Fold this sequence. Notes:
The protein has 402 residues and is an alpha+beta fold. The chain is 20% helix and 31% strand. It has 3 domains: 3-93, no CATH class; 97-220, Agglutinin, subunit A, CATH 2.90.10; 227-398, Agglutinin, subunit A.
Amino acid sequence: MSPFTCLLVPINDLDSIAVTSLRIKEGLNGVSTPLGRRKPSTPRSSIAGTRSLIYLKARTGLSFSSTPATISKAMGILLYSLHVLLVSVLPFSNAHRRERLSLGDSLSIDREGDELVSPNGTFAAGFIQVGENAYCFSIWYARRPGKKTVVWMANRDKPVTTTVSEIHLNKYGTLVLISGGEGKVWETNTAFRRDVKELELLETGNLVLTNGNGEFVWQSFASPTDTLLPGQQLTRNTVLVSKRDAGNYLSGSYSFKFNDDNVVYLIYSGPEVSSVYFPLQDSAVYAQGRTNFNSTRLAAMDDMGTFSSSDLFHFNSSDYGRGPHRRLTLDHDGLLRVYSMKEPNWEWKVVWFLDIGSVGFTVCAEATASASTRRSRRARVRRDSAEKTRRTGLKVACHRLI
């Protein structure tokens, strides 16, 4: 067995060496070397060297004489090898966690842990597995150990495989998702933008391409999936689309967007029917406190938990105030919810939701239901809303659909 077999040892074994500094080269050459601070009456180098020699004997079965030169060599071998181990192993564990990509850099599925992180570690961007040998380039909350809450996806409806797939910032300033089997799957609209400098993940959760002046050339906030983060705007050109099902990231049947009349709507789009289910369609929008006279078509949630829209759709989360991490998500069941998370538990809880009843899109699809059936459904919606208010303590906005 080689003497170097003893190098991979628990840290508590190495603590006994009690070294603060050592000139490795001199130690290997047998020269007695000061080991940092020590008491004048206690030759710590001799004690530490003897322990190192005993350790080498125990691990290797070889015999060593206890001369000062041999003791110094034993310590040199052990500490030099520890140095090599720490330099080679510890950086490797974080080698692929970066805050930015420069032109020509990439993130690969094949490199485990190859991802971008925001400055304070709140968000991460990389590949997540969405099915058997299926991956999407995504942004997620990184504060929850082992649990990834996805807030954005580049290729939710066209996952890539592990075969030489990567996200690459090419020399032309375009972020390109490449699948080994299909070629280019997704890209940013920044082709031939010579001013693009790097890709960076901000602490807000916004993934941005920036130029030399730090200006945004492209940003993920401009193309949301099913979630709005604080400060992210819903505009005339953007839309939230729900997941298809719990755990299924493919685009679902529900959307949240501005319509041509400047009002923000919740819409169900199924294979046979499409219908607005919020706001109510049996009365004018102004009768429900909304307006269609503001053509800016902007809506956003701020870091206090307030959502405001140009059509006067407005609400506050129940934990109003700065501090928690929040997200506004259109869930796979078609309901709009605000989730909140804070330390030390880092668990999501619902702090606001728009309860449109338990009947969901089925009511929209069954416009021919009898009057008695509709009355029964309305009563059930009211009962469900009252029960949810009792259980959660939240103020519930309950709206009937028919």
